[in-house]
């Protein structure tokens, strides 16, 4: 820290450390007027002069809210370094010529795109070109910290520029996207060029190579945040990176999105949660000080878009984007801080947007005064060239050379016949495939009675001296009897044996959800807790000495961020079974953006596969609108080209086979499972050892109890068991009940065979619990009628705006009416 001849007033100095950022010169367009703070203005003059040099320049830092004094001291020492060494921070002086070259290239790239593809959206970086040297300095510093990989996430603005100048993709590849070569190759699929992902390598000045993965992202700007963090966690876990030093997440945000999107706040909360921690994410706000056409005063209720991050004890760096030297200095400090303390850090890079939201918009309509200033503002590379004393002739020569280079790349792109692939998948994807389902994808999933018994033993045991809760002791005794074949399997034990069998076979398992360790319905109890000292024991981690890892986490109270995280994790751990469980199935609508943009469309848009499993409790039991329907119809509406799997297993054994199938076959597709609630321990859905030994999951469960049916009831899930009980009560020997266990990909052949087993049945009825405008009816009816070549009838609740009644008695009346109609109409 610099010292002065005159003693400093510590009270004044601390005031500037705390509030100096409010008077810093942060906005190139001077929209952030300095805030008056009487104490700062009336403070000790000598100390104020000293403090203003460090805390009221083109860098402003919020850090005094951090409770750890070591972290505050670390920041103070670097922020108050001597002026003559401010660009050094104990490292070689920043390469100003390199910064100039990056600014020049960033601007010229945009100019070439504008001149060659006039009227085409590109979401230019212009106005905040210092993002490129910021990322460059972050990569250089990460390489010094011996990082191996960077997972980079960002929205569309500046993305094409980042692909070329940060990720390292050849400019010709980006130009090819504008040429739109080979459109037939992506009919009905693909995505716009500024949503695509890319991979590349950064060769640092110290000789290290850092791999970069720019994550594909939709127009829901912050939806990628948890996906990127989940990918980092998977990469770290794969590398055994327990110190969080080898893989670094850098997430770029727009200012309006950072302030307004809830999933960003949810993702920030991952920071120190043990099931989601990645050792710190570098959050960069690419701050244009404008939304689509919206002024900051209309999209944030505080001075800075970054204020939402103040909930965490992390530093927030604000920096004027028109001072590239300050930007580079902040970039270095941010990365060093992250590695020093394994902490999140925020960099608020403040600039402007030279054009409208896209280049086809006219911003002078909504911000006429602002855009007069912007139009008069020279490109940053020219300002910086003057700052470092570059002669105008040399600046013009360099500009012409870069333009010529890019024009040559544009010519190269015009000659391409196929659109280039901007990324390469890691080798761990080699064994897995997507595309259409094929019979050869299937694998045997049954286990012998001896194998099940061997797995049940550690699942129902606990360490000597461990004090098990009496209720759980009884549960484990019952599960031990299940493993020995003395008691039928319920869902909880069938799931435990399935997961144990997988980890024993070397398949890792990651499972998370709200209260999933115990289970919302008190059904799982994957972690035993000592009632005397609180110690924990997870039997699934003690199945075999050489087993794969397994972790089951209680998540935070979030759907969007947690599902996004697990989807991201599955993207970089295809050899693991990755499951997310909703507390109730209908709560998954809080993650609908993740479902729509990533889970169901990721393969079609970006050619990216995932095997993530969504467990969604579903079933009508008189618990009201929010605890009945997992919105099965929404997932079925999203089905196409075998993009996902949708299943509703009706028995414990079916669930067992479904989980094992998902993990063991090489076909990697997301799996949506409508899981039960009341049927979790019901005798009707219980299974035997023989059922677990069956060869595989049954897409259709035939009815062998009725040999010559006159009527066939088709259904899925819990209602089928209720129909069976109703049939038994009626002593009806002429009605067959078929369970459709896999709804998509639709099992045409299996269903056709099950129907053909009852050739005399002329009456085929689809029965569902859900209202007529919900459930599977709209999806299955045309498919069943195509197989039968005749219409079918249906029994269902009346169409409704709400999934279910809130009255338990009304529910009972409705349910009995469904059962009666199924057998009498």
Explain what the structure shows.
- This protein is 38% helix and 13% strand.
- It is of the alpha/beta class and 825 residues long.
- The strands form four sheets. Strands 1-7-8-6-5-2-4-3 form an eight-stranded mixed sheet, sandwiched between helices. It has a seven-stranded mixed sheet with strand order 12-9-13-14-16-15-20, sandwiched between helices.
- Strand 3 (198-203) and strand 4 (209-214) form a beta hairpin.
- Residues 86-92 have low confidence and may be disordered.
Q: What's the layout of helices and strands?
A:
Elements: H1 10-19, H2 38-41, H3 45-55, E1 59-62, H4 69-79, H5 96-116, H6 131-144, E2 149-153, H7 159-167, H8 171-179, E3 198-203, E4 209-214, H9 224-239, E5 247-254, H10 255-260, H11 262-268, E6 282-287, E7 316-320, H12 324-341, E8 345-350, H13 368-376, H14 380-387, H15 392-414, H16 449-459, H17 470-483, H18 491-504, E9 509-513, E10 528-529, E11 536-537, E12 550-554, H19 560-571, E13 577-581, H20 592-599, H21 602-606, E14 613-617, H22 632-637, E15 645-647, H23 652-664, E16 671-675, H24 689-693, E17 700-701, E18 711-715, H25 718-730, E19 735-740, E20 742-744, H26 748-756, E21 763-771, H27 777-788, E22 793-797, H28 808-824
Parallel strand pairs: 2-4, 2-5, 5-6, 6-8, 7-8, 9-12, 9-13, 13-14, 14-16, 15-16, 18-19, 18-21, 21-22
Antiparallel strand pairs: 1-7, 3-4, 10-11, 15-20, 17-19
């Amino acid at each position: 820290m610099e010292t002065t001849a005159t003693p400093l007033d510590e009270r004044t100095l601390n005031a500037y450390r705390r509030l100096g950022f409010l008077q810093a010169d942060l906005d190139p367009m001077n929209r952030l007027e300095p805030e008056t703070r009487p104490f700062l203005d009336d403070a000790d003059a000598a100390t104020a002069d000293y403090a203003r040099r460090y805390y009221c320049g083109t860098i402003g830092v919020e850090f005094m809210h951090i409770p750890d004094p070591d972290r505050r001291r670390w920041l103070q020492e670097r922020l108050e370094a001597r002026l003559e060494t401010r660009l050094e921070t104990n490292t070689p002086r920043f390469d100003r010529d390199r910064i100039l070259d990056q600014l020049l290239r960033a601007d010229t790239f945009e100019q070439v795109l504008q001149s060659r593809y006039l009227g085409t959206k590109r979401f230019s970086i212009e106005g905040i070109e210092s993002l490129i040297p910021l990322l460059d300095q972050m990569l250089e510093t990460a390489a010094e910290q011996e990082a191996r990989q960077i997972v980079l996430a960002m929205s569309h603005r500046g993305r094409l520029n980042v692909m070329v100048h940060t990720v390292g993709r050849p400019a010709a590849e980006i130009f090819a996207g504008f040429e739109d070569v080979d459109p037939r190759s992506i009919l009905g699929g693909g995505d716009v060029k500024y949503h695509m992902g890319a991979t590349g390598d950064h060769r640092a000045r110290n000789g290290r190579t850092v791999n970069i993965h720019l994550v594909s992202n939709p127009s829901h700007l912050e939806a990628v945040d948890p996906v990127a963090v989940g990918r980092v966690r998977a990469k770290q876990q794969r590398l055994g990176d327990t110190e969080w030093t080898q893989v670094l997440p850098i997430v770029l945000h727009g200012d309006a999105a950072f302030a307004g999107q809830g999933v960003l706040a949810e993702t920030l909360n991952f920071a120190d949660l043990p099931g989601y921690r990645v050792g710190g994410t570098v959050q960069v706000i690419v701050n244009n000080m404008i939304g689509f056409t919206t002024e900051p005063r209309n999209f944030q209720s505080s001075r800075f878009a970054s204020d939402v991050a103040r909930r965490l004890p992390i530093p927030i760096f604000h920096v004027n984007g028109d001072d590239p030297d300050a930007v580079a200095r902040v970039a270095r400090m941010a990365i060093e801080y992250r590695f020093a303390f394994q902490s999140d850090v925020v960099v608020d890079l403040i600039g402007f947007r030279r054009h409208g939201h896209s280049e086809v918009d006219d911003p002078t309509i909504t911000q006429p005064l602002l855009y007069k200033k912007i139009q008069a503002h020279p490109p940053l590379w020219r300002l910086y060239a003057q700052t470092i004393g570059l002669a105008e002739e040399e600046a013009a020569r360099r500009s012409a050379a870069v333009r010529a280079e890019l024009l040559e790349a544009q010519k190269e792109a015009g000659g391409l016949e196929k659109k280039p692939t901007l990324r390469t998948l890691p080798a761990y994807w080699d064994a897995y495939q997507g595309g259409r389902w094929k019979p050869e994808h299937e694998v045997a999933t049954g286990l012998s009675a001896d194998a099940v018994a061997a797995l049940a033993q550690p699942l129902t045991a606990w360490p000597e001296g461990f004090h098990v809760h009496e209720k759980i002791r009884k549960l484990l005794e019952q599960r031990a009897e299940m493993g020995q074949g003395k008691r039928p399997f319920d869902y909880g034990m069938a799931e435990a044996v399935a997961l144990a069998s997988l980890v024993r076979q070397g398949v890792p398992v990651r499972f998370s959800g709200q209260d999933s360790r115990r289970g919302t319905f008190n059904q799982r109890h994957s972690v035993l807790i000592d009632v005397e000292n609180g110690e924990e024991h997870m039997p699934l981690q003690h199945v075999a000495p050489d087993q794969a890892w397994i972790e089951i986490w209680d998540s935070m109270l979030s759907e969007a961020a947690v599902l996004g995280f697990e989807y991201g994790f599955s993207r970089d751990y295809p050899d693991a079974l990755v499951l997310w469980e909703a507390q109730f199935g209908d709560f998954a609508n809080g993650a609908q953006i993740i479902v729509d943009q990533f889970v169901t469309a990721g393969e079609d848009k970006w050619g990216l596969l995932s095997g993530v499993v969504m467990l969604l409790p579903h079933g009508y039991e008189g618990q009201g609108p929010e605890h009945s329907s997992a919105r099965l119809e929404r997932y079925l509406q999203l089905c196409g080209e075998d993009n996902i799997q949708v299943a509703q297993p009706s028995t414990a054994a079916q669930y067992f086979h479904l989980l094992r199938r998902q993990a063991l076959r090489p076909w990697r597709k997301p799996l949506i499972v409508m899981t039960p609630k009341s049927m979790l321990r019901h005798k009707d859905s219980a299974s035997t050892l023989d059922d677990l030994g069956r060869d595989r999951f049954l897409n259709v469960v035939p009815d062998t109890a009725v040999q010559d049916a006159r009527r066939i009831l088709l259904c899925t899930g819990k209602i089928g068991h209720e129909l069976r009980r109703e049939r038994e009560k009626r002593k009806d020997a002429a009605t067959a009940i078929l369970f459709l266990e896999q709804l998509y990909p639709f099992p045409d052949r299996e269903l056709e065979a099950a129907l053909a087993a009852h050739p005399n049945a002329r009456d085929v009825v689809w029965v569902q619990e859900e209202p007529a405008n919900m459930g599977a009816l709209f999806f299955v009816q045309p498919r069943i009628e195509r197989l039968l070549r005749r219409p079918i009838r249906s029994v269902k609740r009346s169409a409704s705006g709400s999934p279910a009644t809130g009255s338990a008695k009304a529910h009972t009346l409705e349910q009995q009416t469904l059962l009666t109609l199924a057998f009498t109409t």
